[in-house]
Amino acid sequence: MAIYYFTNAGEPCTPFEETGEDLMKKGLAIKATVPDGIESWRLSYDTAAKAVVVYAEGKDEEGAIAQKATDAAAQLVTDKEKTDADTAARLES
Amino acid sequence: MSNLSKLFGGSSTTDPRKEGLPLFGLWGGSGDQNTQMNYRVFDSNFRVVSSPWAAVTSTTSNYRFGMLSDGSHAYAMNDHGTDFHSDLTTQGYSSWTNYQKSIYQVDQYPHCFHYTVSREGFPTWQSYHQFTSSFEYQVGWTKLNMVLPEGVRPRRTFTNRRHTMREFMGNSDCNCDYYNYSSHLVDPAVYNYATGTGYNEKNKMLVMIHSGDEGGNTSKSIHIFKSSVDLNATTRIKDFFDNLEWTEYFTDTWTNQNNKDWCVVVGNNCWVGFGLKQSNSKRYGVFDCNQKGVGVDTTGASRQWSTWQDFAGSTTTSYGATQGHQYYTKFQTTWDGTWGMIYSPYYYYGCGINAFAMSLENPRKFININQTKSSRVNPYIAWGRTGFHGGKSDNCDSEVWQTYAFAFDPKDSDHTVDTRVYKGSTSGEGAMPDNNSLVGGDFTNKTGVCSLDAMRTGLHGGTQTTNYPMLMGVNWWGSYGNADASYGGK
Predict the structure, then answer these.
(1) Residue B94 binned pLDDT confidence (cut-offs 50, 70, 90)
(2) Do B346 and A41 touch (CB under 8 A)?
(3) DSSP label of B31
(4) Quick one: B164 exposed, middle or buried, by C-beta within 10 A (0-12, 13-18, 19+)?
C-alpha cells in the first residue's frame, strides 16, 4: 500500500509527500492509501464514501486498458443511440 | 524589415505583429462526426467572432462534404477526422484521424500540428498522407522556443539542428534562409547536435543546447549568444551572428530520455529554464545565463539555481519524442508573454496535462500544473491576458461546454513567494462565492502542484444531443485594439 494525494474533486494529484502535505495544509488535497502497482489514471477518490476507487480493480494495466476500450465502445453506442433517438423525436414533432 | 527595426527600437507605435486577445475555434459535429457540422471562432470572452457557415449531408459515410469536400485539400475523403472521442491510448498510422484533439496539436506557433484555422472561421486539415514526411511531424522539435513581447506570437519560423539555423515559411518544407554558426561556437568540446533552442527578443539572446546525439546522449554544451540586433527583425540569420556582443558557454551532464524533447525558455532576467518530458515524468532546471566573462563559470554547477525538479504532480503512462519525433515536449506562452509552460500529456498520446508553468520574467519562479483526464480531451491554448484553457470538452449533450481555464498574475515574478493561480468553476456560486475566499490557490514555488478545475463557459451546442466539440487553435487572433471584441481598453 502507498500514500497518494487527491484533489478535493477526487482526482489524482501527487504521490509526493512534500507536495501533498503542503497542499493538505492549504486545504487543497485529500490524503489516502492506495494499492501498490496501480497506475494513477485508474485511481480516484469518492469524496462521499471517503474511499479510494480503482478502475477495473483486479486487472493489470493491459487488462484495464482493454476494459477502458470496451467501456468506450459501449459509451459510443449509447451516444449514437441517443443521437438517433433525438433526431427521430425532432422529426416526429 | 527596417520599419520593424525602427518599431522595436522604442517607438510607441504598436508592434504590427501584435494580436488581439486569443481566439479559439470550436468544431461542432453530430455524434457520428457526420451529417451535420459547424465551426465557430470565439474570443477570450466566449463571444463568437467568425463568419457563419455549416454543412450537412444525408450520407452516413463520414466523408468530407459541404465546404470541406474538395479533393485538392484532402488525402482521404474522411481525413478531417472520424473519431473525436478517442482515448488516445494507442498510436499508429491508421489512427491518425483520432489525434485532432490531442494535446500535441497546439504550441506557441500560430499554425497547428494537424490543421490550420483562420480567424474568419475556416479550418483546413494538413493531409494525413503527408505527415510521415512533413515539417511538423519530422522536425517540428527543431523550432525555437520564443519569449516575445505582449500579444506577439512567432511570425517567423527559425529552426536549429546540428550547427545550422534555418528559416522556413510557416511549417512548409522549403528553406528560405540558412546559416552555419560553427565558427561562433566557443566550447572547445564540440557536440554536433543542436537539441533545444530558446530566444528572448527583449534581450536579443539565443541559448542553445548541443548534445552528443539526437537520442539519449547526456553530454551537453550550452551556448549563450547575445547580439545587438533582434533575430526576428533581421533580414538574414547571419545578421544576428555578425552582430554578437558576447558569447559564453557552459558544459554539463543532463539526464534525458530523448534530446528532441528539450525546451529552452530564456527569461527576461537572463535566467534560463530547461525542461523536457522524461519517461512518464518531466524535469526542469534553471541556469544563470547572464554574462560572466570569458572562461568564467563554464560548468553547469556554477550556474544552476537550486536543483533539477522532477514533475511533482500525478503521472501515468505517457509518451514523448522517444515514441515518435512528433510527440516532442511542447512550449506555449500566455498572450501577454509574462508566463509560459513546458508541457506534455498526462495520459498516453495526448490526454490531460503535465506542465511546468514558469514566469518569463524570471524562470526560477515555476510551479507544476496537473490535470488527469484520460479520455475525450482537447488541446490547451493561450486564453485571456495571462492564462491558458482547454483540455476538457467531453460530450456536452445537454451540458454547457466546459474548459479547464487558469490564469496567473502578470506582475508575479518573485520566486521566493507562492504563485497565485486563478481558476474557474462549474457554477456561478463557485466562481463568485458568497464569501471572501480566493477562487484558485497559492502554490509553493518549485514543488507546488496546481490541479486544474473545470469552468463553464456559457457556450452550448446547437442541438441537445450527442456531440464531441473540438477546440482548435487559430492562426491569427486579429489586430490588437478596439476592433477586437475582447479588447479591454488597455
Answers:
(1) low
(2) yes
(3) T
(4) middle
pLDDT in tens, B6-55: 445 545 688 999 999 999 998 877 666 556 778 889 999 999 998 877 77
Interface probe, candidates A4, A8, A30, A41, chain B, greatest B C-beta count within 10 A? A41
Our CA-based measurement puts residue B466 at a distance from the nearest CA of chain A, in whole angstroms, of 5
Nearest-10 Cα torsion for B422, B370, B131, B152? 30
C-alpha triplet B306, B310, B316: angle, nearest 5°:
170
Alpha-carbon distance of B385 to B420, in angstroms, equals: 15
Q: Evaluate whether B168 touches B157 at the Cβ level (below 8 Å).
A: yes
| B58 CB-contact burial (10 Å; exposed 0-12 / middle 13-18 / buried 19+) | exposed
Could you tell me the three cell numbers for B270?
Answer: 537572463
Handedness of CA B96, B101, B104, B109 (dihedral sign): positive
- Return the residue in A14, A42, A78, A93 with the most chain B beta carbons within 10 A, the one to mutate for interface testing: A14
**pTM as predicted:** 0.95
Predicted ipTM?
Answer: 0.96
Bridge-based pairing state of the strands B402-408 and B164-168: unpaired
Cell numbers describing residue B152: 506577439
Supply the pLDDT for residue B350: 92
Interface contact A83, partner B, CB < 8 A: yes
